[in-house]
Amino acid sequence: MEIKTDIEIARQAKKQVIQKIGEKLDIPPDQLLPFGHDKAKLSAEFIKEQETKSDGKLILVTAINPTPAGEGKTTTTVGLGDGLNAIGKKTAICIREASLGPCFGMKGGAAGGGYAQVVPMEEMNLHFTGDFHAITSAHNLLSAMIDNHIYWGNEAEIDLRRVVWRRVLDMNDRALRDIVTSLGGVSNGYPRQAGFDITVASEVMAILCLALDLEDLQKRLGDIIVAYRRDKSPVYCRDINADGAMTVLLQQAMQPNLVQTLENNPAFVHGGPFANIAHGCNSVIATKTALKLADYVVTEAGFGADLGAEKFMNIKCRKAGLSPSVIVIVATVRAMKMNGGVSKANLGQENVNAVEAGCSNLGRHIENLKSFGVPVIVGINHFVKDTDAEVQAIKNYAEKGGSEAILCKHWANGSQGTLELAKRVAEIADSGIANFSPLYKDEISLFAKIETIAKSIYRADEVVADQSIKDQLESWEKAGYGHLPVCMAKTQYSFTTDPNRRGAPDGHSLPIREVRLSAGAGFIVVICGQIMTMPGLPRVPSAEAICLNKDGNIEGLF
């Protein structure tokens, strides 16, 4: 049997015009701003009108720590959403937008796969509706206005040594991590050390994804700390009058994007912070709007549950007043075998013992997520070489851990491959047994919050930080930021800061390299180990294989 690629399947999709998709959520055509025939933005006025409606059930899809074998979290999110619609549940999907960095690097896209995809896949993984470009432009407008303010007299008395606002680019480019700007003489300004992060790590991205409306957006943008004076008092974005223009650039980007699955079910794709260096969830405005329009909303949190799901609970749900009804952890036989010590080259051979050994990673995530008071179920994303004995090993392990595991074949069969999972998820969500609570209280110290995550989620014995970092956290507490949650920037491949330590290690230390205050977004970024906020390209980037063929179609994207 011929196996089609994701892009071939997506190109054969029988898409409906976007107004028809909007009708499934009772969205009038005149409340959609179309981008072509198959995607549109939802008007701010319509979103405002939904505020008095009751909320549907929120379902979070997360995963084990990612491996080169692949887990398929977005694929499962889409498959589950299609499955719920197939059993008669009015359901919307909420996922993040794709960054160009990993598309041309090594990670790939963010639209699902096989017969569980969101389309238009090619546009979604490239420029889409321009949201990332708007975020990049707004961020770098602020950078330009800071340097311009300094050049024209520095009325705010910014200390050039204490400018903390970096520039961003939506591309992996290690050469830009640390740079010197304004070389070339007096007319080019004052030389200083600076640097770039990737756009998905931008505080502007986080702000857009946490803001409730345009008014809240501008307030948060104004709250950004861009620099400090010689007396170490902060200089805010509003002090150099950049917040208004930034809001203008972001006005349309704030509107959620509506697209569809291969089975013509509604999907909101909006916002895109990475979970290893940012908070890893789609926008609050998209999720909250979807909850007003659908009875069930399936959303995802990036990378493994130790990062994405932890931040979904402790940052997004805390800030937006959300409460998930059920959590689905995606796992695969292949990934369990890799966690059990099998090399990628040997994953096609049955090895039940390795599956059982690797299930420790899954078990750790189950334990962690249940501590939030939300019921947990495992979705086994099926691969064609999985054996019945290997699948049963995961089911047995999940049952012993007080959960349950259901085999899903959505990649090959679409919604028909997730009917069992969909029925069980709906049953659990409708039961009302969830009693969600964040992991820590607002009132405890910032360092105590870091320790709580390190010890409760990562199972570290200690947090290692220089006294200068502890002093910085204390100074922020004195300045009134002690109530903020923490956003851990850490490798996604392990519970530790060593990407090669698979399974469920304990007895390790969590080294903190740097802390950053994101006052506008409303959290403290804690950079651990060797994680970078500006990734580099691999030795052979995906970009080398991407091109247009003689028919003008994209090749090599997937």
Write down the overall geometry.
Answer: globular
Tally of discrete structural domains: 3
Under CATH at level 1, the class of the largest domain stands as Alpha Beta
| Proportion of strand residues | 15-25%
> What is the typical, i.e. mean, pLDDT?
95
- Which percent range fits the helix content? 25-40%
Describe this entry's structure for a reader:
The chain has 558 residues and is an alpha/beta fold. It has three domains: 6-129 and 253-431, Rossmann fold (3-Layer(aba) Sandwich), CATH 3.40.50.300; 131-248, Domain 2, N(10)-formyltetrahydrofolate synthetase, CATH 3.30.1510; 446-528, Roll (Formyltetrahydrofolate synthetase, domain 3), CATH 3.10.410.10. It contains 19 helices and 25 strands. The strands form six sheets. Strands 1, 2, 3, 4, 5, 6, 14, 15, 16, 17, 18 and 19 form a twelve-stranded mixed beta sheet that branches. A hairpin with a 4-residue loop joins strand 14 (257-261) and strand 15 (266-269). Helix 7 (131-151) runs antiparallel to helix 10 (243-250), helix 9 packs across helix 10 (243-250) and helix 13 crosses helix 14 (352-370).
